[in-house]
Design goal:
alpha+beta; single chain; AttH-like fold; 5 helices; globular; 13 strands; 19% helix; 13-stranded mixed beta sheet
Length: 216
């Protein structure tokens, strides 16, 4: 097969455009919310949760999103439940009934957020741009913007805005998870974690198959 034919057969990259919120709690549970405005599955939200004992749980709204996310990241348990998010400029409310309720208070945009917003959107979303942002993100925020994922995939995170979380309340299975705390230790769903400081990040995530594809 010619290089041109192989190139034509290569699956197109998958792009997810939205927000990622990362928050720790005083109980030791850390939560990562993905709120996707545009994706190959349409708009949807999901929650990744790691308990203090290391148990990793995915809450996804459909079997299709559960299979895709579950094969891209690592979890000990996956549950399919409705995940609903209501947003305004200062407060996000998350409901994954009957398991989880969470409210996030959004703070002001700091210097990092202003710098990210100054980068043109098309450039910020480009996987090639992560060659520049990855070392800076590791140094300044302790996170990675590109790496290998499960299912024979690679991922690139193009951050386009960042705001701090100033407060959070969350209950899981009826139990109060406690006050907002740093995301520490880092979550272990994939090749990287969210910033240690609780935050809301505007992001374009690109996923490309590099090995045998996994059915969504």
């Amino acid at each position: 097969m010619s290089g041109r034919a192989r190139s034509r057969a290569r699956p197109a990259p998958l792009r997810f455009d939205g927000w990622i919120a990362g928050a720790g709690t005083s109980s030791g549970t850390r939560l990562v919310l993905g709120h996707w405005l545009r994706s190959p599955f349409g708009p949807f939200s999901d929650v990744m949760l790691e308990r203090a004992d290391g148990h990793r749980l995915l809450l996804a709204p459909t079997p299709e999103t559960a299979r895709f996310i579950g094969s891209t990241y690592t979890f000990d348990e996956v549950r399919v439940v409705p995940v609903r998010v209501r947003t305004d400029d200062r407060r996000w409310t998350v409901a994954a009934e009957p398991l989880l309720r969470m409210e996030l208070t959004i703070g002001r945009r700091g210097a990092t957020g202003l710098l990210l917003r100054a980068v043109p959107g098309a450039l910020a979303a480009s996987p090639a741009w992560t060659a520049v942002t990855d070392p800076l993100a590791r140094l300044l925020l302790g996170v990675r913007t590109r790496g290998s994922a499960g299912g024979g995939r690679r991922e690139w995170y193009g951050a386009r805005d960042l705001r701090a979380l100033t407060a959070a309340t969350a209950t899981f299975e009826g139990r109060d998870l406690g006050a907002l705390a740093p995301v520490a230790p880092p979550v272990r769903f994939g090749f990287g974690s969210t910033p240690r400081r609780p935050s809301l990040v505007r992001v374009t995530t690109t996923v490309r198959e590099t090995g045998p594809p996994t059915a969504p």
